[in-house]
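Entry 12.
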Amino acid sequence: MPRPLEALIHLDSLRHNLQRARECAPDARVWSVVKANAYGHGLRRVYEALRSTDGFALLDIAEAQRLREMDWRGPILLLEGVFEARDLEWCSRLNLWHVVHRNEQIDWIAQHKTEWPHRVFLKMNTGMNRLGFRPEAFRSAWARLSALSQVDEVSLITHFSDADSPRGIAHQVAAFHEFTADLSGERSLCNSAATLRHAHDPLVRGDWIRPGVMLYGASPDYPEHDAGHWGLQAAMTLRSRLIATQNLRAGDTVGYGSRFTAPRDMRIGVVACGYADGYPRHAPDGTPVLVNGIKVPIVGRVSMDMLEVDLSLVPDADIGSEVTLWGKGPTVAGHPTRLPIDEVALHCGTIGYELMCALSPRVAIEVMESASA
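Predicted 3D structure (tokens):
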């Protein structure tokens, strides 16, 4: 019998979340962001559920090549552009669109010999201060690109630093539009947070939105809003089972370092999941899991292959009882249960993105066509 730990990828949830993105920006086209192996869900696994998108956005040429091998013939955008001049050969061969964010990339394009001109997205640094031309240098870069025979069309892109926080995006939107007002080209501004919170504004919505984490059912502005508030559904469930139980006396300790001390006589369960599976080792006591659909807390330090939970609220739980680490839980009394990945992440001092991407290769993965599958 295999170890009772598996991740479920819910294709119906992916389709639903893509549709939610379209509803937020009905006049825009959609770049479905599938970088980092589709946020840990697996590029090949999510492809069928997301293939109604208008384009895929990612980082690696190898991932772009896999999409082409899966018979995707639509647009693919390299969000960080090319890393060296010879990458442009792959862009020509695979018909890849790519972001231009520094002068060296323009130099490489100018020297590139290609039969088919490239589609590029010129990036403005409106305050994120990672990639892109500062607003006052943007027009010059746009003019250089537009003059090249190797370039078919120049589109315009920026990235928001505070779309999920009180500071907001007004300062970045203003800078972007001030310095692009009379420039031709399609616009792309919205990540997941901006799509959900701000895409009702045509100045923000632009021509292309770039939903990422929302496609996978996490909320980009948790805990202000959870996924349910935005109408999103979990695309990944991590579930296991109890493989042992222990009866503790008051004063007994649990796990490495004896971090947890039993305040009373109590019963705990041992779950087949640990940090080698991608579950955060630093998860504190009180981090929630579901046992038979009931929320219970972790006790003691997470080890490589196991973690322990307090069974006080589920006295009928025993070896073999289902444990949901995050995602969709079992139906209890006719009602589905769930444990948002964002809630687990908040307890661990991180974000749902990191938990998704950290899933270990040793975890068995099953693709579910629908919730009832």
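Annotation: The mean pLDDT is 97. The chain is about 25% helix and 25% strand.
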